[in-house]
Specification:
four-stranded antiparallel β-sheet
Length: about 70
């Protein structure tokens, strides 16, 4: 199966939360309400500077993805 890089997710138990799932390495889910992240990968041993830059970029892209998706609902 070929998955998109980002997916929107919601849950009726968390009606105020907005989740974006990143399906490629490093896989994570971010709650855009408070920027809390749950990682699905073990990132120990990775170059901290490189991974920090990449992760910051991915979090920005997750927010941009959400904003783009929401413009399609207007």
């Amino acid at each position: 199966m070929n998955l998109p890089k980002f997916l929107l997710a919601d849950n009726s138990n968390f009606p105020e939360d907005i989740f974006v799932l990143h399906s490629e390495f490093p896989r994570f889910i971010i709650n855009l309400k408070d920027d809390e992240i749950e990682w699905f990968e073990d990132l120990t041993g990775e170059n901290e500077e490189d991974i920090a830059t990449e992760l910051a970029d991915l979090m920005d892209k997750a927010g941009e993805f959400y904003d783009k998706e929401m413009t399609q609902y207007d």
